[in-house]
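User: Some background: our group keeps a shared notebook of sequences we're curious about, and every so often someone picks one and asks for a predicted structure to add to the entry. Today it's my turn. The entry only has the sequence so far, pasted here. Could you supply the structure so I can complete it?
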Amino acid sequence: MFKDIVIFSSIVMISFVSTNVKGQIASSGWKEEDRIYSKVFDAPLSGKQLRKGTTLYQVTSQKPTVLALIFTRCTGVCNPFLLELKENIELRTNEKNFNILVMSFDPRDTEKDLDDLAMRFGLSEDKRWEFAVTDSIRSLVQSIGFKPVWDSLRQQYDHDALLIGINSEGYITKKLIGIRNNADLGLLLASIQDSFTPTYRMANPNMLFSCFNYDAKTGKNTPGLGLIFVALPALIAMVIVLSVNFFVRVNRI
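Assistant: Of course. Here's the predicted structure to add to the notebook entry:
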């Protein structure tokens, strides 16, 4: 009985730690936490609604930006990804203080390809949406940590759906991997507008009791003092069980 209690308690503790350390992980193995609070590359942009010479920082400095990375020849996730994003944005009719920038990571895509995509989705006249290409896409995706893989047999990229939140200073504040719901989008929008969110808090040496400490330079989480307090009830329970077992054995002798 005693061994069963100890084993059960250990399993609970291990499960708790592993659940809280891991974030959403892409099929390629990279995580939503990668490159958070690092600056995105200031790529030159070309698009229908953009002036010549506009850069990404100029767009984000006007309004915090939600960046969606797609390619127009995609036969997989890109179209349902954009459709879901459009539907979620339409639910936020009263929110105007952000941009949605849709960019292609495929060097073959042209400005016209992105214009045609905007028309297909009925977004070419929506001022909140901008569709653009860049001649510095490699530098941009590297700064984000995005790694689409080219499949020469299918002539397609193997990639995950990805939304990136960028604040007005050009810093990545949050990522969403996969097709996500409106609540997740709300957290991303809050992060780019410097509002409090329960995830991805800015690293702060005064946050002594956080469960995990995120290092923006390495992209890794390390256990914090708060984890001790969270685990304390389980540890106390184990001590009580051990103590009771000890006294029972002593009294039997």
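Suggested note for the entry: DSSP finds seven helices and nine strands in the chain. The CA atoms of residues 39 and 228 lie 33 Å apart.
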